[in-house]
Design brief:
2 copies of one chain form a homodimer. Helix content of chain A is 4%, strand content 51%. Chain A is mainly beta and 122 residues long. Chain A has one domain (33-121): Sandwich (Jelly Rolls), CATH 2.60.120.10. In chain A, 36% of the residues are buried. Chains A and B meet through strand 1, strand 2, strand 4, strand 6 and strand 7 of A and strand 1, strand 2, strand 4, strand 6 and strand 7 of B. Chains A, B: One of its GO terms (molecular function) is isomerase activity. Chains A, B: InterPro entries: Cupin_2, PKS_Associated_Protein, RmlC-like_jellyroll, RmlC_Cupin_sf.
Chain lengths: 122, 122
């Protein structure tokens, strides 16, 4: 029987940070929710764009272009940003923040399989 | 300069129904917002899943499987559903409803280029 995916209900099932949970599949991509707080690591995904939609809280995505120049974009609820593939970025939250993120299935969240979180399914 | 995509701000720029507006690009897909009310047409996308996230209002997606059996899923704000590729579906809203939808760039929203809405960019 078809059932909706309720994002708040999924987010209520865990409390740890920076561990994305897969909630649906879309064209070979993982649709995920994640709770974040504090700073992640600088990384890039050479083969995929990175989709961020803030559901609750506030997320700053630091960006570094090919010349090394840094900028940043800050997102509140209902705001999204796509980090283009290959662009170095570092997500930072100064409060508990909930995100909907989308990446191709199997993409390591740190850009490096050795340090990536295991993506479990909720 | 990097700027967030504010979904409510984009939705405030138009009033017509069933005419998706592209607000961002992600891995060859259009990220779109759309306002809907009433019933759409039954259709299927043979080559792509169909992503629906309700931002405001309520959406029922009628579904018809290969045997012709109908079912339905109803989504409220913060709920999403992925219609698998090839599955016939008919979105219906009984009130003004706002959605975030994702399809490969160029996918006709009716499943048929002859009847599809032109996807403009906001």
């Amino acid at each position: 029987m078809a059932a909706p995916v309720d994002l708040a209900e999924k987010l209520g099932k865990f409390s740890e940070h920076w561990t994305p949970k897969v909630v649906a599949d879309f064209n070979g991509h993982d649709i995920m929710v994640v709770k974040v707080n504090g700073a992640f690591v600088w990384h890039a995904h050479p083969d995929t764009d990175d989709f961020f939609l803030v559901l609750k809280g506030r997320l700053t995505i630091k960006l570094r272009d090919a010349s090394g120049t840094e900028s940043a974009v800050t997102l509140g609820p209902g705001q999204l940003y796509i980090v283009p593939k290959g662009v170095e970025h570092c997500p930072v939250a100064e409060e508990e923040t909930h995100l909907l993120i989308i990446e191709p299935a199997g993409t390591p969240n740190t850009g490096d399989p050795a340090t990536a979180a295991v993506k479990t399914r909720l």
